[in-house]
Amino acid sequence: MAIIKEDGTRQDIGIYVDDSDVDPCIPSIVAFAQNGELLVGEEALRQAVVNPHSTIYEVKRLMGRSYYDDPDHKFVYRVRPTLKSHSLKGVRAAVEIPCGKFRKKLVQPELISALILRHVADHAQRYLGVAVKDVVISVPAQFDDAQRKATMDAGLIAGLNPVKIVNEPTVAAFAANSLTEKLLAANDEIDNSEEEKQRHTIWAVVADIGGGTTDYALMQIQGSYYKVITTDGDKTLGGRDIDIRLTEVMTRILEEKYLGFDLTSSEFQQKLRIECENAKIVLSEKQQYSLTVEYVDQDERTENLPLEHLLTRVEFEEYISGIVEAMIKPLHSLLTRAGGSITETVGQGIKAENIEDLYLVGGTSHIPKLKELLLSYFIIKVQ
């Protein structure tokens, strides 16, 4: 979360948790607590283990979607395995939330997204000391018109004025300090003639791979001017899918290691999913991770005990190889398609070796195997 000042510079907005200023990022998680309290962001994440049935994440995968868009409802599974999607006002997707012991209610994705946007705006107002009304909201590059409209509606429901909906990789490129420095440096080196602009054209690829989506953008940089030439991606593939895949694998491994233990409860699966996410983060820096999840026997036949497994980076990369390869496919498609579009735009084709900069954005892009595969397309240094 950040603001753009009148002089064009960016200022990150700190998020206050327990009266301390922390990283300017808010988890896109909403929870309806058992006591009726509404929780958003870090607070929702903290209670996810004890309240898995009413904790929702990655809701943007349902934005503007029909219940029948995916016959197998895989996008519903990815949003939260224990929640179901139902038709609302015809075929619109919604999330089912427990409401008391015997009642349930349907909540539209736009409302859940609005709660997150309102939470972000409230933090910004607290930080800045002024009212926040006008906002620019970023969405995956592959969002269609219905999904963009749903995002705009969420902003309006939140009491905000969505000035514009922009693609996430475009915003990522604009926000990257390294890219900003490149733009300023290039602007000092060249004049404004068309000949000089063509001579100093920089081609860059932005890979924005976060928790819920995978986006790529090919950008043309000429001095202080930059343009998105083409984009590609997968709006239903991200780091969350790696967490789910690793959770499935670790469930099988722990079941074989600890025979007779029932590891299918929602509470245990939520604990394991959080621990698998921690493993993913740690293994981006280290070669092994001691995965530990406390097992609570629901029948109290045995004492609570930690279930453990030493997970190596080699094992981790093997388990998620299929997902990583799927994340690379849109890049191949983008570069294949870019040759024709660039030929038409500036009179010259472009190949992977013409790309000067690759900007990696999003936590998932830190995974070494994914970074290695991305770099294999280019003869450049990663930013």
UniProtKB/TrEMBL annotation:
<protein>
    <submittedName>
        <fullName>Uncharacterized protein</fullName>
    </submittedName>
</protein>
<dbReference type="InterPro" id="IPR018181">
    <property type="entry name" value="Heat_shock_70_CS"/>
</dbReference>
<keyword id="KW-0067">ATP-binding</keyword>
<dbReference type="GO" id="GO:0140662">
    <property type="term" value="F:ATP-dependent protein folding chaperone"/>
</dbReference>
<keyword id="KW-0547">Nucleotide-binding</keyword>
<dbReference type="Pfam" id="PF00012">
    <property type="entry name" value="HSP70"/>
</dbReference>
<comment type="similarity">
    <text>Belongs to the heat shock protein 70 family.</text>
</comment>
<dbReference type="InterPro" id="IPR013126">
    <property type="entry name" value="Hsp_70_fam"/>
</dbReference>
<dbReference type="InterPro" id="IPR043129">
    <property type="entry name" value="ATPase_NBD"/>
</dbReference>
<dbReference type="GO" id="GO:0005524">
    <property type="term" value="F:ATP binding"/>
</dbReference>
